[in-house]
Amino acid sequence: MIKQVKNPIVEVHDLTVAYDNKPVLWNADFSIPKGKMVGIVGPNGAGKSTLLKAIMGLIPIASGFSKILNENLKQVRHKVAYVPQKESVDWDFPTTVLDVVEMGRYGKKSLFKRLNREDKQIAVEALKKVKMLDFADRHISELSGGQQQRVFIARALAQEAEIYFMDEPFSGVDMASEKAIVDILLQLQEDGKTIFVVHHDLQSAMDYFDWMIFLNTRIVASGPLSEVFTTEILQNTYGGNLSMLEQIGQIYKEKQFPIRES
Amino acid sequence: MFDFWIILTACIIAINSSLLGSFLVLKKLSLIGDALSHAVLPGIVIAFLISGEINSFWMLLGASGFGIFAILLIDWLNRVGGFGKDSSIGIIYTLLFAVGIILITSKAKNADIDVDCVLFGDINTTPLVDKTVGVPTPTFNLIIITIINLIIVSFGLKGFKITSFDKGFAQTLGISIPFWSYLLLGLTSISTVYSFDSVGAIMVIGLLVIPASFANLITRKLKSFLVISILFGIISCISGHLLAVLFDIPTVPTIGVFMGLILITTLIGKTLLPNKLEVKA
Amino acid sequence: MDFWKDLIYFFSFQDTNITNVLFGTIMLGFTCGIVGVLVVLNKKALIVDAVSHSILPGICIGFMLSGVKSPVYLISGGIIAGIIAVYLVDWISKTSRIKKDAAIAITLSVMFSVGVIFLNIIQHSGNGNQSGLSDFLFGKAATIVRNDLYVFGTMSALVLTIIPLFYQHFKIALFDPEFSKTIGLNRQFIQGLISGLIIISTAIGIQTVGIILMSALIITPASSAFFWTKNFKKSILISGLFATLSSIAGVFISYLSPDMPTGPWIIVSLSSIAIFSAFFSPKGLFTKHIKASKNTKKMLSDNVLKNLYKIGEKEAETTKARTIEEILNYRFTPLNELKTGLRLLKTKGLAIKAGSLWMLTEKGISEAKRIIRIHRLWELYMQKFMQIQSDHVHESAETIEHIMTPQLEAELLKLMGKPVNDPHQQNIPYED
Q1: Contact C101/B267, CB-based, under 8 Å?
Q2: What is the distance between the alpha carbons of residues B205 and B227, in angstroms, rounded to a whole number?
Q3: C139 has a pLDDT exceeding 60
Q4: Are B252 and B200 in contact (CB under 8 A)?
Q5: Is 3.40.50.2000 the CATH number for B2-272?
């Protein structure tokens, strides 16, 4: 069940993503209204992070497109913030907590220009919001997992975006931090922002999100929580036999056959 | 005045290499630096064969094109050709270096470019060569290159920083990763070419990597990282030269050994006294 | 015809000097080439560089202690220095934030500096034997004499015994390190053994190509070999073969023209083989290009076949002959592509040309049915089993129809029975 909406804030159309010409995400097609807290769930290796990365233009796509605020990503970059998975960062890099949050302001003007007072103030405010101001001068590797995650969320806050994409913000995070992060997200939603969260715990997903995307190599369902949280959809997402897709994917890879005809 | 020019030249090279080397080390591109320091050789030899002199500013600038060429080849071999990353580096720089050596031994014999100076440089002859506005030409060239590098790095600090720290995030801001990485490698290639004649291929890589690694040991802030790296480079060059004069041994390798000893001593000190020896601000 | 005379003389083994040099370089090349496979698979390619540069101070100390240029002392010194280098890289990268690549660069430049200082001290010591020590920098195959051969032979024999002896250990440890741990293989021992092989082969290999270019003698032949085979044993042999051929080429070139240095030419030959492999091996770029053009042709001929059938499907006359205009009217295809497609169909015996008319053969009809069947079955599968809406299934079926195997088709049929219509209510054609 995929619920398409009018005037979506994010629209994904026939999106296929392949690694080494083997599709890992097939024909994703959905649309999301403004102001939702969207949970993206599915089993391991289902393509959740791949979906976010494709929308953020971090990996090439084999077919289809995605639109944000009815524009291409390029035109609306400044309205989008992305919190990557922790592994994508070089934790040994010489940089402090405040440094990292200030990076949220880098996209606002030419990299060759210095940050001004206002930028720094915004960064400090963002750190305050995640209750990490006391750690501003620490090296990022000296924090706990939950604290690190909060710093990266602060960086996203400093971007002052309309739409937030977060890749597994709750993984490796203690309960207290998880609660703190959820509070921040709720605050964002109250301010009218739209938030996408890749998540793996179904139980808490029911509490956190009001819109769900069920994903397993293809979109199984997308819609308001109450409409899509059904046994049938869960079975399709977590059960189901994908060996056919796997085998076809393997043939694509071996033959390096084009995934679309043109 | 004699030693002054040698020390000055070494220090300029140290400033330049430590600065760019810091980013190479942080981006885990140390071995690309190694490859560059060897791969520019054919460029230098060809520039020499055409212009007949080793210090021609424009010829050397052209020669640094070989560095970029090597990077592109490595990248191509890795992405398109299907070789592993390490193997691509190993194959390309040895090939280009071999071509350089073949050119020297067969075409440029008896000229003042020879295989020994390729490896060790001849910084001790710096005071004897032609001068430009009163400064030995190689030193003069290096000063210009260093000023350019300092300007570019101070303005582009944010770019180098974010593309090294968090590539994915930088991309989502619309920052071009290839631009910043080719800028860094291009500058490194140019610096390498101009340093080559003075300190040779092996010490170019030493000066790129060792000061930055030293800084990496004792600080976790980017600005102090860069400052410490540069200072370490300068101090090593001065001490290295003085020790070399004292013991009557060649300057360039003495700088290398000096840097190595300090680094290893610091590392031992750190393992014995953890939590000390860290610069906080 | 000097070249042919030279060639014959060179390979006639009349000249003992040439024979010594040739045997020496072949032996060293072969040994290094073989070790290279282990090195590259173990992702240790660039540690060779640290080891080879570090050998210089070892050689110098060997010479200083013995006072003569005996290969035994020099190689022993080199091996000890090599061991120190491997430990140094390991220690630096393990005890600090310094990454492995930086540790390699640090080790090679510092150790090499030490070597250069020693070399300088030796040159000033007035020992008349010292001349030729700096030959280790770029190698000097031409100076290999009978005595050297015995030493190299012993070392090569050692390497060539260890590899078959521990063949299975290496295979498992390199292919699946986790599994090798579970069956109780001592990882450190295997890693140590590989490091040992690197050090020994490097210590002798620098004789031919020199310190700076040494890593290529180990890495390049192995990297090229992987293009030609996936088999571990074969890759070892092919790598050894490439290194041997390049060694012969290097020696021969510098024999023809004494100006030409042997070592660098060995490296240039090795790299040429590598680049040749990248283009023309079964995994190479050229093969990929052929694959791509095959794919394009397949799509083109399948699509024309489909169209030719579908015109008739509507009129229920699939066997009727059609003009090119009719085909174009049914669905526009660029004329040259359409003609290529038809020609391909003709050579495959799927269509025949009668005057200016084209019609499907029996074989062509059944092939067209197969393609259309797969297309429609896949659309149905996507809709029913993958919860994809029917207006989004066509695009993906458009390419899958070209690549689906009969076995997968059978699976689809088993899964869905023998459905009559696709999601767009079009008839799915079967053979009977």
Answers
A1: no
A2: 19
A3: yes
A4: yes
A5: no
Reported as a single tens digit per residue, the pLDDT across B207-228 is 999 999 999 999 999 999 999 9
Q: Tens of pLDDT along C98-115?
A: 999 999 999 999 999 999
Rounded CA-CA distance C394/C411 in Å is 20
Does any CB of chain A come closer than 8 Å to the CB of residue C416?
no
Q: State how far the Cα of B206 lies from the Cα of B214, in Å rounded to an integer.
A: 12
Residue B281 has pLDDT above 60, yes or no: no
Task: Kindly determine whether residue B87 and residue C45, on different chains, have CB atoms separated by under 8 Å.
Answer: yes
Residue B103: closest C-alpha in chain C = C260
Contacts with C, B 181-220, CB within 8 Å:
201-203, 205-206, 208-210, 212-213, 216-217
Alpha carbon of C179: minimum distance to chain B alpha carbons (Å): 23
Cα B10 to its chain centre, rounded Å, is 12
Nearest residue in C to B240, CA atom: C113
**Is C14 strand, coil or helix?**
coil
Residue A260 domain flag: no
Q: Torsion angle of alpha carbons C377, C382, C384, C389, nearest 10°?
A: -120
Q: Residue A152's domain spans which residues?
A: 10-255
The greatest distance separating any two alpha carbons of chain B, rounded to the nearest whole angstrom, comes to: 56
pLDDT at C128 over 70: no
- Considering only CB atoms, C403 lies closest to which of A1, A219, A257, namely A257
Statement: residue B116 has pLDDT above 90: no
Q: Which residue segments constitute the domains of chain C, with CATH numbers given?
A: 2-283 (1.10.3470.10), 287-360 (1.10.10), 365-416 (1.10.60)
Q: In C132-186, where does DSSP find H-type helix? A: 135-138, 146-165, 167-175, 177-182
Give the mutation candidate from C331, C394, C395 for the A interface (greatest A CB count, under 10 A).
Answer: C395
Decide if C106 contacts B210 (C-beta within 8 A). yes
